[in-house]
Write a structure and sequence with these properties.
Layout (H helix, E strand, L loop, with lengths): L4 H19 L4 H4 L2 E6 L5 E2 L2 E9 L3 E9 L6 E6 L3 E10 L6 E11 L4 E11 L24 E7 L5 E7 L4 E6 L11 E6 L2 E9 L5 E7 L4 E6 L9 E6 L25 E3 L40 H25 L5
Parallel strand pairs: 2-8, 9-15
Antiparallel strand pairs: 1-3, 3-6, 4-5, 4-7, 7-8, 9-12, 10-11, 10-13, 13-14, 15-16, 16-17
């Protein structure tokens, strides 16, 4: 039995289709997310202060969090940022606040609905010549990049007592936070970053054993605010709300929708925001300062457990190839039964 030339043509077309399916890059939808770490490199040994570089940009972005995963035990928080980064600076990493040892770096990708996946990054070794880890980092690890849809807030407790803080808006946004006291032997103030839907917010800031301070301020989209609690001993500066400049992005960073913010000569980096209905005790006694050891970590609103999602692209390509093979075989069978072979 001789084969009709159309059979060979059909086989060639089928082979080309299969090879193209395997050879083409992933479709655009699969390439939207860009999450990786370039520094520190996999297998490297790090000491002192390290700038973590790379990318953290993905669909339905709310924030990214960076963790260290030890061989045993819970994840250790490093930094949280509420704006995408592409080929830029991800975190300021003070390795001296962690035990010497080997860790896996993790980037948690948090969506607007608070669901998250985790990207497993490089393995690094911390090796500082210290008898024990430092109780406080030398610098705040999280970058304050300009947010795209929200107002960004950094709440800092620079008092010697634990802080309870709450806020609420007429639109129904509300939450409550707690921060540990600032230690006596450091300039580092425990902090928490969060974003607000634009609008007017009211609430209280209450130091342990101190009178509640009532405040109100207007949060505007794209602006960065610093809320500082200094304690009753600071008098009228017990609680301060400042509008501050966002952190400048690296020149290679294309993750933001707006250009990097340059520092303006002779312009203040902090601008006080008017407070309404604020009550500041005028003759308060100085706040007592107790030595408190503050861990170098933030109070994440999400649990520190999660599982990354492996890519399903290879399985999709295999499925497409099998489907094309079956369809091509069916075409050849129909051609044979229709008399294309003699």
């Amino acid at each position: 039995m001789k084969s009709h030339p159309l059979q060979y043509v059909s086989l060639i077309v089928l082979a080309v289709i299969v090879s193209v399916s395997f050879g083409q890059p992933a479709p655009a939808a699969a390439q939207e997310g860009s999450v990786f770490i370039t520094t520190p490199a996999n297998g490297s040994t790090v000491t002192g202060l390290v700038t973590v570089t790379g990318a953290a940009a993905f669909p339905d972005f709310l924030k990214y969090e960076i963790f260290l995963k030890p061989g045993k035990g819970d994840l250790l928080w490093v930094a949280t940022t509420y704006a995408p980064v592409v080929n830029g600076n991800l975190a300021r990493f003070d390795t001296r606040t962690y035990q010497n040892g080997t860790y896996q770096m993790i980037i948690r990708q948090v969506n607007s609905n608070s669901n998250y996946t985790e990207w497993v990054g490089p393995t690094i070794t911390i090796d500082n010549e210290l008898g024990a880890p430092l109780p406080y980092p030398e610098i705040e690890p999280s970058y304050l990049y300009m947010p795209e849809k929200y107002a960004l807030v950094r709440l800092k407790n620079c008092s010697g007592v634990d802080l309870e803080f709450d806020y609420a808006s007429a639109q129904g946004s509300a939450d409550a936070l707690k921060l540990k006291a600032k230690g006596q032997d450091t300039t580092y103030c425990p902090f928490e970053d969060f974003v607000l839907i634009p609008g007017e917010y009211r609430g209280t800031a209450t130091g342990s054993g101190e009178k509640a301070y009532t405040y109100s301020f207007q949060a505007e989209v794209g602006k960065v605010y610093e809320l500082i609690y200094n304690g009753e001993g600071a008098g009228r500066n017990q609680f301060m709300v400042n509008y501050i400049q966002p952190d400048k992005r690296a020149s290679t960073d294309t993750g933001g929708t707006q250009s990097p913010v340059e520092a303006v000569a002779a312009a203040p980096t902090q601008t006080p925001v008017p407070l309404a209905d604020s009550v500041a005790p005028a003759d308060a006694e100085p706040a007592s300062v107790a030595p408190v050891e503050v861990p170098a970590q933030s109070n994440s609103v999400l649990p520190v457990t999660g599982q990354g999602e492996p890519s399903g692209l290879p399985f999709v390509l295999i499925g497409v190839a099998v489907l094309l093979f079956v369809v091509g075989g069916g075409v050849l069978l129909v051609m044979w039964r229709s008399g294309f072979s003699v």
